[in-house]
Design a protein that fits this description.
about 100 residues, mainly alpha, 2 strands
Length: about 100
């Protein structure tokens, strides 16, 4: 649940910079009671990336090593998307 809170915090920071946000962590939190397999969330995250122009990573313990984070970075890079290490890197980016 801590990851969901960190993701929400970053999403709000990006929104305050004037960008639209898709935040899978906060969108899928209610589904956690159903015990879905991790690959369901991973595939959903990758599907949602197709709607995005860039990725803004959420920094925190264990996140850089997560399978989902690695897969999203790889997909974004292979598809020519910019991967920001955090919202502070986005302060000068136009909408």
């Amino acid at each position: 649940m801590a990851n969901i809170g960190r993701a929400a915090d970053v999403a709000v920071q990006v929104l305050r910079l004037g960008h639209s946000v898709i935040c899978p962590h906060t969108m899928t939190a209610p589904f956690e009671i159903y015990g879905l397999e991790d690959d369901v969330y991973l595939n959903l995250g990758l599907d949602l990336l197709e709607l995005c122009d860039a990725v803004c990573l959420v920094q925190g313990p264990g996140l850089a090593a997560s399978e989902g984070t690695r897969a999203e970075i790889e997909w974004a890079t292979m598809n020519g998307m910019v991967v920001y290490q955090g919202p502070e890197e986005m302060s000068d980016v136009a909408e």
